[in-house]
Amino acid sequence: MLKGKSAVVTGASKGIGKAIAIELAKNGADIVINYCSSEDAAKDLKKDIEALGSKAVLCCCDVSVPEEAKALVDLAVEKFGKIDILINNAGIGLAPPSALDITNEDFARVIDINLKGTFYCSMEAVREMMKRGSGKIIGISSSAVEQPRGGTAAYSASKSGVELLMNSLAQEFGPYGINVNIVAPGPTETEMLKDFFTPERKKEVESGIPLRRLAKPEDIAKAVLFLVSDMSGYITGQKILVDGGRTIR
């Protein structure tokens, strides 16, 4: 499905990013694995991708730094000759009991990584994609945009910004053959949330989900695969909520 395509996945060493990288590699894409601190996990992922018959390269960089975001995209072009797909997955969560508990520094860091990082990487990818007249960009958002909850002020604001950014890019760069879409996961069983989901809390959250379970990273990855494949060639500026129906209105 993606044979001959090259993809950059930010924040790819674990969780949702890892699942996306593996799903794209299963379908033939070569992957640039971006990570910031989890080097061992990134190296293990590289081995997994190569075992699937795809190529993989590692890139340790902080996407919130413009020069490093540029180096990430430049590496894809250097190693694979092009960038066909960008998955803006890198992000951090922040959910203290109250917005009053969020420090200015914490708020700035969430915005820097989740929103600015998505902008920096997307702009570098767009410049390359415009040269070839095609490309797929995905912003990973969150169901928290639909249902913001206490303490999620910084996180929800950053993801809302990601959605507006993606929609703006879809409008502007659609004429250049670039599709830009959003995947918004609901509560997902990842390492980032493992401490949050105590057995009691997990049961409580699942009771509010029509499908009665949390998402798995693979659920998110399959939605991403659809949006970067030829099956979605006429879809841009859209959002897929992968939340088991939690935000049904």
TrEMBL record:
NCBIfam families: PRK07231.1, PRK12826.1-2. GO terms for biological process: bile acid metabolic process. InterPro entries: NAD(P)-bd_dom_sf, Sc_DH/Rdtase_CS, SDR_fam. Keywords: Oxidoreductase. This is 3-oxoacyl-[acyl-carrier protein] reductase. Gene3D superfamilies: NAD(P)-binding Rossmann-like Domain. SUPFAM superfamilies: NAD(P)-binding Rossmann-fold domains. GO terms for molecular function: oxidoreductase activity. Belongs to the short-chain dehydrogenases/reductases (SDR) family.
